[in-house]
Every structure is written in C-alpha cells, then in structure tokens.
Design brief:
The complex is a heterodimer of chains A (249) and B (311). By secondary structure, chain A is an alpha/beta fold. Chain A contains 6 helices and 13 strands. Helices cover 27% and strands 31% of the residues of chain A. A 9-stranded mixed β-sheet of chain A has the order 9-8-7-10-6-1-4-5-11, sandwiched between helices. The termini of chain A are far apart. Chain B folds into 2 domains: 165 residues, 3-Layer(aba) Sandwich (Rossmann fold), CATH 3.40.50; 120 residues, TPP-binding domain (Rossmann fold), CATH 3.40.50. In chain B, the strands form 3 sheets. A 7-stranded parallel β-sheet of chain B has the order 5-9-4-1-2-3-10, sandwiched between helices. Chain B has a 5-stranded parallel β-sheet with strand order 13-12-14-15-16. Chain B has a 3-stranded antiparallel β-sheet with strand order 6-7-8, with no helix packed on it. Classes of the chains: A alpha/beta (249), B alpha/beta (311). Chains A and B meet through α3, α4, β7, β8 and β9 of A and α3, α4, β5, β7 and β8 of B. Bound molecules: flavin-adenine dinucleotide (2 copies). One flavin-adenine dinucleotide (FAD) sits at the interface of chains B and A. Chain B: It holds the Pfam family ETF_alpha. Chain B: This is FAD-binding protein. Chain B: InterPro entries: DHS-like_NAD/FAD-binding_dom, ETF_a/b_N, ETF_a/FixB, ETF_alpha_N, ETF_asu_C, ETF_asu_C_CS, Rossmann-like_a/b/a_fold. Chain B: Belongs to the ETF alpha-subunit/FixB family.
Chain lengths: 249, 311
C-alpha cells in the first residue's frame, strides 16, 4: 500500500509574524519557513507504517512555489521515498489544494492519505475533509491513534468531550492531531540521502485543476492589542482587585 | 433566502454554542432555520425550537445520524443547502469535521472560524494563531461558514419555532462508530464557563492538577490546560486551550504555570480579565495579563483558594 502525505511550507511556528503595512497580507520575505508541524506528524505516521510493513511506499506532496522543494526534502530526509510538487505561485486555498491532491491520488492510487488537521498559517482546518469528499472516501479527522487492519482503519479522534473511536473503510483520508506521535529529527546521513531521492514537478494545468481562489482577501489587519496590566504583590491584593476592580469573582 | 444552522447535540439538547451560531446566522440573512439530525432527536429539536430568532427547526430522524459521522451527515446537508444562502456551523470538533466535507461536495469554499459578519458575503477570520485578522469575501452562491462561538453573544431562549420532520438520507456505509472515551466532569464546560482556571507544565504532574480542581470548584470555574500539560499526560486532550485546541473567552482566565506561547494566547487572549501566576517575571503571559503575580504556584494557589473561600 502506498501512503501519500501532504507537507505544507509555512512560516515557522516560532516566528512572530508581521502584518504588511499595506494590509494585503503577512510579511513572508526573509522569514524562516518550515514544514507545518501537523504535517511532520503525518510524515512520521506514514514512515512508521512503512517500518512496520503496513505501507510499501511513502510519497510526500506539496503545492506552492518552487521553495516547497525544501519542505519535500525534509520529508524525504525523515524517510519518505519520493516527492510530488505541484508548482505554482498562485494563491492556493484549501478547495484548490484538495483538488490538486485528488488529481495526484487518482494517479498514484494510495491506500491512505495523511494530512495535517490544520495549517498553522491560514488555520483553515479544511483540506483533508475536502479531499475525502471529492474522492468519496471516508475521513478520520483529528487522529490521536491509528490502527490499520483488514482494509479499514480504527481511528481514535480528539473531539470536544475527549476521545472518540471510529472505524473507517480504506482507502481513506486521515488528518493528524498533536498526540498522534512525536516526529523524528532527520539524521545527517538521511539528509544527504534525501538529496538523491526523486521529486516530480507538475503544473496545476497539467492536472486539469483550476486553482483560482474562491475567497477574496479584502484586507489583513493587526488584531487589537491587549495591554499588559499590573503586577500585584500578594494574594490578598489580587483577590481585592478581582472583586472590586474587575468585578469577576 | 434563509440561513441554515446545523446543530450538534447530545440527543437531549443542542449544544450551547448553537445559540451563538444562531446569533451569527441572524446577521447573514432574514430568517434562520436549524437542522437537528439524529436518532431520537426529538428533545434536541425541541431545545433548538426554543432559541430566539429561529423560524423553523428541521428534524431529520435516521439511525445513520446517531453518531454524527461526517460521511453520513454531509449528504443530508448537501441536499438541503440549495434552499439556503448560507450553511452555518459552530467551529467546534463537529463543525470542523463536517462543514468542509459539505463545502467540497457543493464545490464551494468554506469560511473557517468567522469572528465577525461584515455583510452577508464578507467575514473577518483570524489567521496565524490570531496574530492577523483577514477580511474575506466569498462569491459562492451557497456560503459555508463556521463561526467562533465566543465572538457572538448567544441568542436568548424562550422562542417557540415550528418543528418540521424531514426524511433522512441513510448510511453511506463508509464508516462506523466504535465508542467514546469522554472526560467526565461536573464542572462547567470549558468554552462556555464564566471563569476558567488553566494549568501548564509548571504544575509538574497530573496529581498537582487536583490543586487547580479545588480552586476551580470554589470559583465555579471550568478547567483548562496548555498543550505541554496535555502532552505530558497531566490532563486529557479536551482540556487544551489554544490555536489548535479550544478557544475560550471567559470573564476571568487564570493562567497558572503557563508561559504564554503565542499558540496558547490564541485560545484565551479575548478573555475579559486575565490573571497570570508564574515564577518567571519575564514570562510572556504577563504581557497579556491584567493582574500578574510573580511567585511559586505551589504557594500561591493554596493561598488563593483559601482567600476566595472567605468571600
Ligand atoms: C491573506 C492571505 C494571503 C495568502 N497568500 C498566499 C500566497 O501568496 N501564496 C499561497 O500559496 N497561498 C496564499 N494564501 C493561502 C493560504 O496560505 C493557504 O495555503 C490556503 O488557504 C490553505 O489553507 P490551509 O493551509 O490553512 O488549509 P488547512 O486545511 O488548514 O491545511 C490542512 C492540511 O492540508 C495540507 N495542505 C494545505 N495546503 C497545502 C499545500 N499547499 N501543500 C501541501 N499540503 C497542503 C497540509 O497537510 C495541511 O496540514 C494566502 C491566504 C491568505 C489568507
Ligand atoms: C503546531 C503547534 C500547535 C500548538 N498548539 C498549542 C495550543 O493549542 N495550546 C497551547 O497551549 N500550546 C500549543 N502549542 C505549544 C506551545 O508552543 C507551547 O509549547 C506551550 O503552550 C507551552 O506550555 P506551558 O506554558 O505549559 O509550558 P512552558 O512553556 O514550559 O511554561 C511553563 C511555565 O511554568 C512556569 N513555572 C514553572 N514552575 C513554576 C512554579 N513552581 N510556580 C510558578 N510558575 C512556574 C515557568 O516559569 C514557565 O513560564 C503548540 C505548538 C505547536 C508547534
């Protein structure tokens, strides 16, 4: 069974982002970029399946500008076998990414597609669910634990009230939550080896996908700033303030 | 055209956040309908009919809807959607699971986690963990929107909408429900609690969280946590507050032994009053706290618990 994983290039989670002065977006020039953390979890899960013999090949997919090669290389260094880059400088929204992924799925016929539950830049939390819909497949969102057996996957999901277990038919789409696994770091030899692994580059047109954005971003602004308050010295003072100044207890 | 709110429920009542979603929906169109799909969902449908501003409740009975599997529920919503201008869901684990599937089946975009309705086709939504606010406009005929409940004041009760029975769409046969391991708690639910007591890695163990439980119970508060505390196994996953956990906006948020990473702040910085207890006076949490107290939580929390008792 092939496993396809999606890896998105995003601004590193440690970077304090800045809104552009002209309010058209967020400053991305000269900013550290990394693989979306949820996608590291997706790659890790796929590699573990291969190590256990449940998967035969792990393919890393990314969509975006040429630099997404680096993100795919990171996945290859972790242990993925090859990459597919759908290269475009156009703005990509989740529905478009889902359509690109579907086109690649149609070609590659994986048994599982594993994506992050949410990209930490746009915070949409849509792509995996949309892909499953387009394919007519089942989906296991917010996965905390996976167990692949006999043509189906048992998925333990992180939900509002705690955890939920479902069983879904394969082929299926999985979206990862934080506790699914702890992704490995790539070793130096593996980083070297990854340089020789193949990455196929495709264009959205060649896949027959119209990626035109459906949502128009009118403006991007700074959120209202919260001002730091005061430091109190004692618990008595704190309780007094909460009671009489804030009126919250 | 009317707006359809899709309600999650537990069989007896719709979730509290449905009243927030109805309030948001009322800003998108002239009339709001609520869909309650389930197996034996009569009581839940009735609870939806009592939300002010709801013109009609659609109750869809089908054994396939008992556990709200996306594969089974989405076709029903897709069938109803063409009669509406918008389909609205709360951005909780149900809405996040189901709405994108509906959107893709309709070939429309989804607006995720709207915090403001600017006009029926234009919404404000946070991106980058709330460090930027994007105003987005959709040109799609049917607009699929999830809304962040804490940003819309809940519609009041006391309504009496008509309940209409509609046919179900059956099971897709792709997925099945096995079981749930839900956290049991008598405390107020995190996202609707007026006060939230939240603990981080500074607590050092799950046992030490008992201290926070005592404080929470005195205050009638819900209990939350940072990702680090959840990852370390001190508390269950559903306690996590933040960019990738729950978003809360209580009157009072008490952050104890939490450093204040941007991913955590994303989930609580809209709280009315924030208190931080941390031994490191440089901790970023103090930059958003109205009242900070620098010191050892193991000393301060018991003191605070005793002091609030003396009300
Ligand atoms: C103001 C603004 C400006 C933007 N400008 C640009 C721009 O200049 N260029 C541009 O490309 N996009 C741009 N975007 C689009 C945006 O960054 C996201 O790529 C897009 O909206 C997808 O949303 P998401 O990643 O949050 O989806 P989610 O649904 O949250 O993503 C979930 C998962 O889907 C997978 N996934 C999503 N996207 C990709 C991808 N591209 N490749 C591989 N896997 C993926 C990953 O596994 C990810 O974890 C802009 C968005 C906004 C709001
Ligand atoms: C993709 C991604 C998603 C994430 N999503 C979330 C999310 O949704 N929510 C979230 O919370 N985090 C999230 N994080 C993690 C986040 O970056 C931080 O790592 C996390 O919030 C830190 O938790 P903490 O503050 O409890 O721990 P730490 O940062 O370790 O802070 C512990 C604090 O406790 C204080 N302390 C220690 N002992 C005492 C004592 N005895 N008395 C008083 N104070 C004490 C210390 O001074 C310190 O400030 C995410 C990270 C990533 C990469």
């Amino acid at each position: 069974m092939k496993v396809l994983v999606a890896v998105k290039r995003v601004i590193d989670y440690n970077v304090k982002i800045r809104v552009k002065a002209d309010n058209t977006g967020v400053e991305t020039a000269n900013v550290k970029m990394s693989m979306n953390p949820f996608d590291e979890i997706a790659v890790e899960e796929a590699i573990r399946m291969k190590e256990k013999g449940a998967a035969t090949e792990v393919i890393a997919f990314s969509a975006g500008p040429a630099q997404c090669q680096e993100t795919i290389r990171t996945a290859l260094a972790m242990g993925a076998d090859r990459g597919v880059l759908v290269q475009t400088d156009a703005e990509l929204q989740p529905l478009a990414v889902a359509k690109l992924l579907k086109a690649v799925v149609d070609k590659e016929q994986p048994g599982l597609v594993i994506v992050g539950k949410q990209a930490i830049d746009d915070d949409s939390n849509q792509t995996g669910q949309m892909l499953a819909a387009l394919l007519g497949w089942s989906v296991g969102t917010f996965a905390n634990k996976l167990n692949v057996a006999d043509g189906s996957v048992e998925v333990k999901r992180e939900v509002d009230g705690g955890l939920e277990n479902i069983k879904i038919k394969m082929p299926a789409v999985i979206t990862t939550d934080l506790r699914l696994n702890e992704p490995r770091y790539a070793s130096l030899p593996n980083i070297m080896k990854a340089k020789k692994k193949p990455i196929e580059t495709l264009a959205p047109d060649a896949l027959g996908v119209d990626v035109a954005p459906r949502l128009k971003t009118l403006k991007v602004e700074e959120p209202p700033k919260r001002k730091a308050g005061i430091k109190v010295k004692t618990v008595a003072e704190l309780v007094e303030k909460l009671r009489n100044e804030a009126g919250v207890i | 055209m009317a707006v359809l709110v899709v309600a999650a429920h537990d069989g007896k009542t719709v979730r509290a956040n449905v009243a927030n979603a109805v309030a948001a929906a009322a800003q998108m169109g002239p009339e709001v309908h609520v869909l309650v799909a389930g197996s034996n969902a009569g009581e839940a449908a009735k609870s939806a009919s009592e939300i002010q501003g709801v013109a009609k409740v659609l109750q869809a009975e089908d054994a396939a809807y008992a556990n709200w599997l996306a594969e089974d529920i989405a076709p029903l919503i897709v069938k109803l959607a063409p009669g509406y201008s918008h389909v609205v869901m709360a951005a909780d684990s149900v809405g996040k699971n189901v709405a994108p599937r509906v959107a893709a089946l309709l070939d429309v975009a989804q607006v995720s986690e709207a915090i403001q309705v600017v006009s029926p086709d234009t919404f404000v939504r946070p991106i980058y963990a709330g460090n930027a606010m994007a105003t987005v406009q959709t040109a799609d005929q049917i607009k699929i929107v999830t809304v962040r409940p804490t940003n819309f004041k809940a519609a009041a009760g006391g309504g009496s909408a008509a309940i209409e029975q509609i046919a179900g769409t059956g099971a897709a046969g792709l997925s099945s429900f096995v079981g749930a391991e839900l956290s049991k708690s008598e405390r107020p639910e995190l996202t609707s609690a007026k006060i939230v007591v939240s603990g981080g890695r500074g607590l050092q163990s799950g046992d030490n969280f008992k201290m926070l439980e005592t404080l929470a119970d005195k205050l009638g508060a819900g209990l939350g946590a940072s990702r680090a505390a959840v990852d370390a196994g001190y508390v269950p996953n559903d306690y996590q507050v933040g960019q990738t956990g729950k978003v809360v906006a209580p009157d009072l948020y008490i952050a104890i032994g939490i450093s204040g990473a941007i991913q955590h702040l994303a989930g609580m910085k809209d709280s009315k009053t924030i208190v931080a207890i941390n031994k490191d006076e440089e901790a970023p949490i103090f930059q958003v706290a109205d009242y900070g107290i620098v010191g050892d939580l193991f000393q301060i929390v018991p003191e605070l618990t005793a002091a609030v008792e003396k009300k």
